[in-house]
Write a structure and sequence with these properties.
globular, 0% strand, mainly alpha, disordered C terminus, 14 helices, 74% helix
């Protein structure tokens, strides 16, 4: 399907002549998408916990009536099992189940286009530009983290997030299998979270509200998904950037690559260079002015260039 055909796909909702299940039954696309985000998140969390607990009991044996504190401590000391459970939940529910659920909005034939699993001649260039963009935007993400931490949040959420970050940092500083860690923290979220948010959610919201509202709303939902109120602004910013990249590139692959670089890069730095200046970029401190300026200038140039490139390949038309 070429770019003009995709425009027809969006304008007609699901192709030239075949309506979707949602259209035939009077459901707004955004309502189904919001419903599925909540359900997928709940199923993902439950399944991740069950898998992690099962693996732990298989490894350590079942103890008689363990108290909640002992269970929490056991998981803290076995983060590798939590990573396995987390990956299982993401693959099954955020990835595979989202792919199936998206059929309510489209047909089997058009499903890859609906989720933007497509590539064009411009895709390699967009992949390269997106890789540079996510790196150049790191000072902006750092700055938003600093702003976010100035905002009041319930002490419980702040304490929970700090505990999570400390546990992950300790794990990355310890002896661990780098390939497995990159798989669980880098690759799985890069594929599964992108299917849910930049594939399914972005397209469903786009059909209901138009692309620009869809980009912003899906980005903030992506930030909320992580349950990190003290990190909401930078996560939402990343979500918005990835949604924008998906729109201008007309493909989900650049966002997947950027997600992998962002997560995988953090793992590599924390594991191999824990005492470097990059690893010490904490939310409590502002980024240097020169780094923030550089990040804004380079990111703005890439964002504008990608938009202009899309407009040229679209013959100057604008999607709404």
């Amino acid at each position: 399907m070429d770019l003009n055909q995709e425009n027809n796909f969006i304008s007609s909702g699901n192709g030239p002549s075949i309506s979707s299940w949602a259209e035939r039954n009077g459901f707004d696309d955004w309502v189904l998408a919001l419903f599925w985000i909540v359900i997928a998140f709940i199923l993902f969390q439950i399944s991740a916990g069950i898998v992690a607990a099962t693996l732990y009991f298989v490894r350590e044996g079942i103890q008689a009536q363990p108290n909640p504190q002992e269970i929490i401590q056991a998981f803290q000391e076995n983060l590798d099992l939590l990573f396995i459970g987390n990956s299982f939940g993401q693959i099954v529910f955020l990835g595979a189940a989202t792919w199936l659920f998206s059929r309510l909005h489209t047909t089997k034939r058009d499903q890859p286009v609906f989720l933007r699993f497509q590539a064009f001649d411009k895709t390699p260039k967009m992949l390269a530009l997106t890789a540079v963009l996510i790196v150049a935007a790191q000072p902006i993400i750092w700055f938003l983290s600093w702003i976010n931490i100035q905002l009041p949040v319930p002490e419980y959420f702040e304490s929970m997030q700090n505990t999570q970050l400390q546990l992950i940092e300790q794990f990355l500083r310890s002896d661990h299998n780098m390939m497995l860690t990159l798989f669980h923290i880098g690759l799985v979220p890069a594929v599964c979270e992108e299917i849910l948010y930049r594939g399914y959610t972005l397209r469903a919201f786009e059909k209901s509200w138009g692309i620009w509202t869809a980009i912003i709303v899906s980005g903030f939902l992506f930030g909320l998904y992580h349950l990190q109120l003290t990190n909401l602004l930078p996560l939402a910013f990343i979500g918005i950037v990835l949604a924008y990249v998906t729109y201008v590139s007309e493909s989900i692959y650049p966002a997947m690559l950027a997600h992998l670089i962002n997560n995988g890069g953090s793992v590599l730095v924390a594991s191999y260079y824990p005492d470097s200046s990059i690893a010490e970029m904490t939310p409590e401190s502002m980024p240097p002015a020169w780094a923030l300026t550089f990040g804004i200038v380079i990111s703005a140039w890439i964002i504008n260039y990608m938009y202009q490139h899309r407009q040229q390949t679209q013959g100057g038309t604008t999607d709404v």
